Amino acid sequence: MTKAAPETHAKPVNLRIREDMRMLIDRAAKIRGKTRSDFMIDAAYRAAEDTLLDQTLIKVDPESYQRYLDILDEPPSGEGFARLMNAPKPWQD
Questions:
Q1: CA distance 46 to 55
Q2: Does the global pTM surpass 0.90?
Q3: 25: burial class by Cβ within 10 Å (0-12, 13-18, 19+)?
Q4: Which long-range contacts (CB under 8 A, 24 or more apart) does 5-13 make?
């Protein structure tokens, strides 16, 4: 049994977009050195991946899950945390 080769031909996608949005996308695409289409495809692809990753279910055994919960319940500590808490706050003079 042979496996079918994946489709390699690009398919068109038509969008209607306001002029101000198109101009903003064009400016950003130019900065990235991309065409409008490539810029929009990359952005849509990243958004699609993020959406799907947000829906990913991770299964672990009960012991691992309990250890995870125990770590979350521990009070923050360590040198990095102390340094962060003692750092000057931008809103304080």
A1: 14
A2: no
A3: middle
A4: none
